């Protein structure tokens, strides 16, 4: 551990951390500051970056979001026919979806009665079709979330949703078919979250109903910005503040604790140890909490979009592997699926176990507290992974000789336990900030830019080029490579219409 801490010092982790918190432009390839930590600084705090007090700006937007949240929660924000809003649908993808969706699921027990939230992200039209199928347009409000407001999936889904709204309201007689009627419906049933408020207006959403954020908030670091608007409505301003307070507590710890006692630093360094020194490629995250069932998906974007990089800040190739592959499922479901490989496979998978002392739903099976059954399972797994079961122990149980090798557990497989008092908004904020900073620490050790994501661009560009080829433009089809051409022809031969 002390050698790893020395490595962090050699890479000037404290200096890099302080540069991030101060708003220096550490995202060099996009020439941007990285200031998600400013999003949770308390009201009245000050952080002046390039002449602007960013904390004051953050709280101005928070006030706007909270006022909107109170209107919806109190039934004062009504739809085109005067009925109160019952369902909020978040339309966004990547960071504009995964954070809010994960947190909504995690904190469902805190959601205001009578309000439901849904999340549409995929350009597969099934997503929007299924999520709106049983909704009443008169009581539905869409929140279109896109940092850039150019993302194909989000804008396509937003247009589909707008059409669904108009059709529904017109059929119900709530609005006429005039332009004015339609625009009025959008004003009451659509709000937006973006850094590009001009593009929001071009879509037809009144800028007065738009919540802004800044280019110094990366998409995967944005759940505590206006991107979390749906959460502020569902949970209410007080709990949203508590959520932000959790992030802030970890920020303070990260900035002030010595490296050798600093949890995100130590966990980040352990990840580097596993990846680079033990050559382990993946890292499981196993929440023993059903409500955290989207946590691994959220973490995948946070960690892998950040640290899946092959060149260093100066563009030279890295000389050590980067980026752990994160994955996971809640316990105990995972135990009955992939734990076999974790216990006895040929590759070691370091795993983070996350558990809570107090359950959200304290149910009993007869005299048994079922939460304690869950915790016993969690502790059984970390124990089995650490200590295993030797040949001698297996033999001593009277196991037939031929089966002995099959029943041996090598043990010495590393786990980290995070045991928190309860899954509250504050604790969840702490958990997210912890992994944000773990990701940062690893990026500093690897010398990469953890805040850009150029690796997603090629696919976006090619999808635009392939669209005409698939929709019937013969020249565009002929311009494709042989493999893509064959697949498109096969698609055309299989596609049923009508
Ligand atoms: O394509 C990747 C990405 O840019 C993510 O980084 C981002 O979270 C997501 O797309 C959505 O982007 P936006 O919020 O601009 O729609």
Can you describe this structure?
- There is one protein chain.
- The chain has helices at 2-10, 13-22, 54-73, 98-106, 125-132, 152-171, 179-189, 197-203, 229-235, 237-256, 263-277, 295-307, 339-344, 370-387, 391-396, 404-407, 425-446, 457-470, 474-478, 482-494; strands spanning 48-49, 52-53, 87-91, 116-120, 140-145, 190-194, 210-212, 282-287, 325-327, 351-358, 364-365, 368-369, 415-422.
- It is an alpha/beta fold and 498 residues long.
- A five-stranded parallel β-sheet has the order 4-3-5-6-7, with helices on both faces. The chain has a four-stranded parallel β-sheet with strand order 9-8-10-13, with helices on both faces.
- α8 links the parallel β6 (190-194) and β7.
- α4 packs antiparallel against α12.
- The structure holds 6-O-phosphono-beta-D-fructofuranose.
- The site of 6-O-phosphono-beta-D-fructofuranose (F6P) has 14 residues, from loops.
- 6-O-phosphono-beta-D-fructofuranose binds next to loops.
